[in-house]
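Help wanted!
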Amino acid sequence: MPQQKFRISRYDPVQDRAYEEEFDVEVTPGQTVLDALNLIKWEQDGTLSLRMSCRHAICGSCAIKVNGQSKLACQTQVDAAQDRADANGVIAIGPMGAQTVIKDLVVDTTKFMSQFERAQTWLQPPEGQDPPQREYRQSKDSFDHWSHASSCIHCGACYSDCTVAEIDDNFLGPAALAKAYRFVMDDRDSQHDERLEMLSGSGGIWDCTRCYMCVQACPKDVLPMDAIMELRTEAIKSGKTGNHGTRHSKAFAGGVKKRGRLDEATLPVLSAGIRPGAIPELLGYTPGAIRLLRSRKLFAAAKRHGASKEGRREIKRIFEEVEDQKHHDDMDAVAFETLHEEALKAH
Amino acid sequence: MKYAFWPGCVARGAAPELYKSTLAVAKHIGIELDELEAAACTGAGIISDADPYLQDVLNARTLAIAEQKNLPLMDICSTCIGVHSLAREKLENLDYRARINERLAPEGLEYTGTVEPRHLLWIILEDLEEGKLKHLIRKPLEELKLGPFYGCYILRPERVLGFDKHPHRRRSLEAVIELVGATTVTYDGMTKCCGFPILTSNKKNSLTMTGTHLAEATDKGADALVTPCPLCHLNLDAQQADAAKVVDRKLDLPILHIPQLLGLAMGLEPEDLGMNRHVVDTQPLLEKAHIL
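Answered by r_m:
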C-alpha cells in the first residue's frame, strides 16, 4: 500500500503552542482524508483533535483545510487531495480559517453560527393571521428558484475561505447571506422588503468582494456568492438604492452605455453620489490620485478611451432595448435561473 | 498566429503599460492581434448587480464578434476572462442563448458557442512551442524571486475556466515565473482577493486585504509580484502606499504585468514595456535583475 505524507497544522491550547507535525499513512484507493486522519488518531497519536460525525457529507462537522482549501474531510478522497499536494507530494491539513482555533483541527464556530441569527434566517409569515391548519404551503416556482440554497449543511467551509470574513467579523458571510436569500425569495415570507433593507446595510451584500471562494468551497452547491449577487439585483429592484453599491453599479453601466467602455474618470464621483458623506469620500481619493498623476496614469484614465463609433451605436441600442424590455419581461429572473441550472449541471 | 484581442478597459485606461507591453511582446513573439474595437466592457460583474441579462448580452456580443472573425479570443485581464467565461456557461443554455441573440440580430451577429475565451497567460503556455519559448528567453531573470498574484476570476469558479481539461491552469503563474528563469515565492494570499472590488465601498477592508498580501509576500522574500489582472494591479501598485498605512507596515513591492515579465526576459527595452509607468518604482528591481 502506498504511503502518503500529511503535514498537519496543530495547536495545543494548554501550552498555547502552534506547530506543524508530519505523519505517514498507508492509504488504499478510495480512502478519504477523514479516513486518513482517523488512522493517524487511532494508530499514531490519540491526542489529535478533529470533529466528525456522519461520514456522509450530511452533518457538516468535518470541514477542514486541505492544501489550503476548505473541504469536508469525509467528502475528499486522498487521491484527489494528492493533485494539489506540495512539490514533495505532502498533503497539508489545517483547521478552518476566519475562526479561532480551540485545538488542532477544531475551531470555535460561535461567530459563524451567530451570523444566521443576525440575518434572521427563519420563516416570518404575515403577522395577525391565524396559522394555517396544516403547513405553510409555498409555490413550486418559488421553491424551484431557490432550492439549491436550501442545501446548506452549515459546515462553515464557505465562511472559512471567505476573504472578507477573514478580516471583518461584521460581515454576515456567505452561508448566512445565502440562507437569507432563501427567505427573501420564499413566497410565504412577509419580510421581503425589511430583509433586503437590512441586508443592504453594513456587513451585508455590498461588502462581498465577489471572490468566488465560497462557490468553490461549498460541498453542497449552494452557490452562496451567486445568491448574494441575486440579492443585490433583488434589492435594487425593490428600491433599496440609497447605498454605494447601487450608485456604483448604475454609474458603471451609465459610462458603458455612453462610451462602450468603463469610464474611470467619472466613476468615483458618481459612486460617491450627492449626499453628506460624499466630500470626505472623494477627498480620501486625493493621495491615490496624486500618485496616479505622477506616474501619468491619471492622464491615461482621463483620456476616456471608448469603443469604435459603430460599436458605441450598437452598445447604446442594446442598453435601450433591454431597458425597454424590462417593463414587459423579467429577464433578470431568467438570467439567474439559467445560472443555477448550468452551474448545477456542471457539478 | 492571429487572435481576436480584447484588451479590457483598464489596459486602455489607468494601466496603459499593460496595453503597451502586450503589443510589444506579441510583436516580438510573432503573434498578430486583431483588437476588438467595437466590443463593450464586460460589465465586470458590476453591471450585473442591477441587470444580469444586460451584462450577458454585452459579453455574448463580444464573443460573437470574435466568432464572426473566426479567430481565437485573447483576454489580458483576470476579470475579463472570468466574466466572459461565466457568460459563456450561461449561454450553453439554448433557450437563454436565443433570448440573448435577439439583441444581437439587428447588428447581424449571432453567438453560436464556438469561441473559447483565453487569457494571454494560458495562451503563452498552451499555444506556443516550449522550444520556441525557451529560445526567446534571452535574459533569464535568475536573480529575481517573484510572487504570483492571480486575481480571483482566473481561478474561480473552476467549472467555467476549463481546469478539468487544462489542470496546468491552476499553476499557470508559477509556470511562467519558472519559464523566465526566476524563482517562485508562494504565500497564502496569492489566490485571494486583492480588495479592488470594494475599494470605493469599504476602503478599510479593501486596503487591509491589499496590505496583508503585500506584507506576506515581502516576508517570504519576494522582490516583486506578477499579476495577470490589471484591476489587482491598481490596488497592489497604485494603492500600495495607503495599504501600507492601513496594515502599519513599510511596503515597497513592484507589481509586474505578465507581458512585462515576459518582455524583460526576452530582452525588450524596459521603456517599451511601460516599466516607467508604475506607481511603485521598478528601477531597483531592474537593477537587481541586471537589466539597468
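OP: Thanks! One thing I noticed: The first strand of chain B starts at residue 2 and ends at 6.
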